Amino acid sequence: MARLKLIVAYDGADFAGWQSQRHGNTIQDQLERAFAAICGETVRVHGAGRTDAGVHALGQCAHADVTRPRIAPERWIGALNRHLPPAIRILRCTRVRPSFHARYSARAKTYRYVLWNGAVLPPFEHKRAWHVAEALDFGAMSGVLKRFEGEHDFAAFSANRGKPAESTVRSITVARLRRAGPRIIFEFTGSGFLYKMVRLIVGLLVQIGRGAVEGDEVRQRLSNSGARTTRTRLVAPAAGLILVRVRY
Amino acid sequence: MARLKLIVAYDGADFAGWQSQRHGNTIQDQLERAFAAICGETVRVHGAGRTDAGVHALGQCAHADVTRPRIAPERWIGALNRHLPPAIRILRCTRVRPSFHARYSARAKTYRYVLWNGAVLPPFEHKRAWHVAEALDFGAMSGVLKRFEGEHDFAAFSANRGKPAESTVRSITVARLRRAGPRIIFEFTGSGFLYKMVRLIVGLLVQIGRGAVEGDEVRQRLSNSGARTTRTRLVAPAAGLILVRVRY
Predict the structure, then answer these.
(1) I need a surface site. Which of A140, B8, B79, B214 has the fewest CB within 10 A?
(2) Is residue A225 over pLDDT 60?
């Protein structure tokens, strides 16, 4: 038995997210099907994070146990890629200690969110960026961005998945924002993220950029110690979100 | 009657090329359908160049005559985009003199060709770059590139379309090549291009980069005054080709 650590990139546009579904075309399903085709047996693949339908990855991380320890880890890259659709690619494969767990051993994740702030969304950006045509106050957005850094109760930035008992306190170590032509690129690094947290943060930032919400709303939502906001929350669409890397 | 000049961008992956076909899903068909939906009558769209199936455009140019001259040109952008799939976008629309012709008035075109020279093709590059996994001698390719500049008989770099009487002399004003990580990006500007000319030039450059063909082959094929080469020619796949701009 050998435990493999995989770095996986995918264009999430045509998949029903990471997590295996009974009738769903998910990334995890595709990976497990590729392993089954190679190994002739069921191999369970564990991901670092469950990305939603339409969300992309440049460096998702996963682990899997295989019963052929003598196959060199690098050889799995080509073998798996031959059985995967071109929208999913194994970039790296290494052998790791049996105690390594893609999800529980993760120390930090970095997400990127890409927004296209121009009149027309170019064809190459379709399903890869959020198209916001109206003018955004970049200064207003960058002015409040740093408030997300540090440890906060992000309850106001999470979508309820029926686990109210779980802590909603998370820590963001780096929150960044830059402009590259009509592109506005957000980047968040943290120890962990709640469900839809990045998309809700970006949604609020865009509301602030539009001038529809005051910048002070960030402080209020973060200090509201767990109580959900009653104001309408904007969830940035999945297409703009990219899981960039997972650190261990 | 007003003549409109359109700048069109498209992701060519899912289209059967530019030119209208009886049962084809082409860019021209899509544009003419959008005009028909808006105008309630047939509007013929003339493109600067007929890109093949799978070829992309950042700045294809087209013209069309409309019978509603009082609609401001800018308003056509939104109107057409509402009737087009997201993979085709009108970027600009201006009114031009009736003698302007997208194809015949064109003075120069710039094509880009993107090659991914790495072990694994990332999902975001799928259908947008040519994946060449093996090592390429960048120096050998850039060393011969400038030989394509100037006026030459490009017969050895054209695919016969049954018009043998037509001149195969063309002029390339700029031939460029650069590396950006695993990406190798070729750029060619010229007054006109023969059918598959860019893809045959890139095909030969890759054969030279692989060491399969001597660099001197470029000179031989260009000096062979119209005679076709008997050696196997490599046509770079359509997916890596982008029509960047048309100058008038």
Answers:
(1) B214
(2) no
